[in-house]
Amino acid sequence: MHSIEEIRELFTAYLNQESFQSEPQNLYEPNNYFLQIGGKRLRPCLLILATEIFCGKTEDALSAALAIEYFHNFTLIHDDVMDKAPMRRGFTTIHEKYNLNTAILSGDVLMIKACEYLAKVNPIYFKTIFDIYTKTAIEVCEGQQYDMDFETQQIVSHSDYIEMIRLKTAVLLAAAMKIGAILGHAKQEDAELLYSYAENLGIAFQIQDDILDCYGDENLVGKQVGGDIIQNKKTLLLIHALEAEKVIESNVLENVLKTTHTHNREKVEAVLAVFTQHQTKEFAIQKRDYYVQQSILALEKINLQESEKQVLFKLVDYLVMRTY
Amino acid sequence: MHSIEEIRELFTAYLNQESFQSEPQNLYEPNNYFLQIGGKRLRPCLLILATEIFCGKTEDALSAALAIEYFHNFTLIHDDVMDKAPMRRGFTTIHEKYNLNTAILSGDVLMIKACEYLAKVNPIYFKTIFDIYTKTAIEVCEGQQYDMDFETQQIVSHSDYIEMIRLKTAVLLAAAMKIGAILGHAKQEDAELLYSYAENLGIAFQIQDDILDCYGDENLVGKQVGGDIIQNKKTLLLIHALEAEKVIESNVLENVLKTTHTHNREKVEAVLAVFTQHQTKEFAIQKRDYYVQQSILALEKINLQESEKQVLFKLVDYLVMRTY
């Protein structure tokens, strides 16, 4: 079995080998650019890891891994348009570097290419895997819609928020691992448990992101702490503090959010003070740990050797119990 | 066998029955709106017709027909954004009625729903049909890219133009009929011939559109004649006339296109005068009839009873030899 780093190398080599060479260039070149920006390649690596854990062959998982990476990048390209984001991973986004139409159409064709690569899997598993894929892809769109809806929605409950991050982030991680397990000839029951493991892990992963934005070490996280606060982004922490204020009929936080601050630092400190008052950090940690626990419960039930399970236990630390 | 009108009724009933009821509403409601705008439902009807012609069951073709209609509408929603079109079939386009983000994301989910419905076909044909679908969907995106590229491209040859309309319009009609034939248990050879029939017919159909824009009867076409000319749209006719001018080193047409006219009528008449000089109409008719001939050649080779072939012969008249 390969390490995650080895899997990433293998996958990247495959991705590069499959880079688009077709015409029209204006359609495919932007996708080559965007795919080269990189990122952690988390989803394809998890897919391949799942195949290997069930003793499947790495090469049997490559095309599905690429399909998932294409799909993920398609969502990023279109999300960047919807969020008007100028940068992604330190590089100019497609709609900024090229234009809106390129971002739409290159994204579209990347999504169809994802389908094409999915169809290269072992034919006996194709229909099963395809059904997981379409279900998941629909959920990811629904998650993105809820995320946009929440921006203008006055009240968002923390459970609505968790459902949103489940759809927007967790289900694709979970589907990647389930598909990987199936391609490794795992039993259906084990594939379902691995899905549950990764789904809960994905939720915990996103909550940890929210926590680190407020309480991370700037030197480790590599970006300004409080970025979400400055943008009034409805994270689990902000939602919790707003819920807590509602109970005691306070509107300190609401006023802080409405105020125009001369220094961002002031705003961040004012919001963090409210978080401290309501033990918001503790609430978020408790939620995160609940999903980590659910993840581990699923993992323990999977019919695997202890050595393979250890890899998956370590993944929990790698993805969630991180400080950056 | 049902008539085209009966098939359209059957299909519309199925489409209505399957209308999206899921949450989030902001994601699905725009698609219900757009799908209700209607149109001729040409692609799904041709798919079902192909199934019936090969004595397949109508109900076996419905989900694939809906998949093709969803895919087609997804392309329309995104094309309308790219073309900045405010209206479609007399109704407000999604990006105008809602906003850009809704047009992008609702389009995306509609495309994935297309995949979902495609997966409901007879399992023995799923992989074959899916491969046709992805190949075609990619080609349609490529066609749209060429169409956009041509807008800013100084010189476009008439053969490049025909390749563009083949990709943008014809292949989806052809894929619809091929998929329908397969679901009707047609032999591979016959399915390929039906593809060729519909592909050539699709090209002829689009050329006829270009001809009618210049030479149609305003009362029959239902819109102002010369719309393409007013917009400097690179149709087969404009491309031919530009090619002809290049040969004789004239730039009359180029100057007309550059001039700002107080009345659109003047511009249309000036362009039509150049078309007459170069026998552009005759050229377009000749091209159209060439593709009709190719279509009929393929049709004649299909292993079908004369009565079934007659339906397909009539379709040529219905789609191409129309005056509106």
Detailed description of the structure:
The structure is a homodimer of 324-residue chains. The model of chain A has no long low-confidence stretch (mean pLDDT 96). The radius of gyration of chain A is 20 Å and the shape is globular. The relative contact order of chain A is 0.10. A two-stranded antiparallel ribbon of chain A has the order 1-2. Helices cover 77% and strands 1% of the residues of chain A. In chain A, α3 packs across α8 and α12 (236-247) crosses α15 (280-301). In chain A, a hairpin with a 2-residue loop joins β1 (87-88) and β2 (91-92). By secondary structure, the first copy, chain A, is an all-alpha fold. Chain A folds into 2 domains: 1-186, Orthogonal Bundle (Farnesyl Diphosphate Synthase), CATH 1.10.600.10; 187-324, Farnesyl Diphosphate Synthase, CATH 1.10.600.10. The first copy, chain A, starts with a helix and ends in a 5-residue tail after the last helix. Chain A contains 16 helices and 2 strands. The A-B interface holds A 22-24, 26-27, 78, 81-82, 100-101, 104-105, 108-109, 111-113, 115-116, 119, 123, 126-127, 130-131, 133-135, 137-138, 141-142, 144-146, 148-149 and B 22-24, 26-27, 78, 81-82, 100-101, 104-105, 108-109, 111-113, 115-116, 119, 123, 126-127, 130-131, 133-135, 137-138, 141-142, 144-146, 148-149.
